[in-house]
């Protein structure tokens, strides 16, 4: 079935020229959808790009707890509040690292990815970012509950 | 020196590392990034990654896999997850494809040790069998954030006797 006959069938038209405004509207909507889809896809989310599939590296229970705290904060605090938060470093020194510094030292991303702070705080609230954060949070909670070294 | 920068083919190279040439801005970027590598990382001079636009940074993660990879000459994983000298920095890339040593009696020096959640690793440095009791004691050498560098700890007390061993 050709496009013309499909449109005729869909709109009950005798010919394509019978309702040109409807055809034009349909084509415009299709084009708009393609453009919006392409733009959305083209804009990467740095939080999701970094955390999705990233390998957590954490030697001690204290390191894991601090990572858990930061991931929880990333889900519940506003970007402004999170920017003010500081986390303990590897050796337990309190208030040593920002969330970005903690993530960079605790996760090795699966793909080439960098955590530019401005983009990081901008992208935190996006569903893709929250999904990746939740997944890492579940993973570190599992590690903590398993009681490993 | 002859040759062009691996990242900037239009620029002459001034330094070569592990067979790759780098231009003056790259060399300066590497020097600046080296100062920001955490002090526990061993070796530190190659724990660097190129971010683009002449910007270099310390690699991500703790560096535990990186030290083991240098000891055992393991260069697996994606190029962006390998150090300037080409060695692996992800724990899973380190032991992926290796044979697991399922019995503790078979563990020997040079095996890779991985924590139960695969979030830290080291290398078996020595194995001792107590003459009197027959008890098998295993020591792990690892790049430790807690101990600020290379450390040797016993498997049972320090790591709770938990984790897996792999034969490279």
Topology:
The complex is a heterodimer of chains A (149) and B (168).
Chain A: H1 3-11, H2 20-42, H3 46-51, E1 55-56, H4 61-76, H5 79-84, H6 99-106, E2 107-108, H7 117-123, H8 127-146
Antiparallel strand pairs in A: 1-2
Chain B: E1 15-17, E2 20-22, H1 24-34, E3 48-52, E4 55-58, H2 64-72, H3 91-95, E5 99-101, E6 112-114, E7 121-129, E8 136-144, E9 149-154, H4 155-159, E10 164-167
Antiparallel strand pairs in B: 1-2, 3-4, 5-10, 6-7, 6-10, 7-8, 8-9
Summed up:
With 149 residues, chain A is mostly helical.
- What is the global morphology of chain B? elongated
Average pLDDT, all residues of chain B: 96
Strand order of the largest sheet of chain B: 5-10-6-7-8-9
Following the backbone from N to C, one meets helices and strands of chain A in this order, namely HHHEHHHEHH
What is the 3D shape of chain A? elongated
Beta fraction of chain B: 25-35%
The total of beta strands of chain B comes to: 10
Give the largest interface pair and sizes: A-B, 27 and 32 residues
Cα gyration radius of chain B (Å): 19 Å
Distance between the ends of chain A: 65 Å
Oligomer: heterodimer
Quickly give the structural class of chain B. alpha+beta
Helix count from the secondary structure assignment of chain B = 4
Radius of gyration of chain A: 24 Å
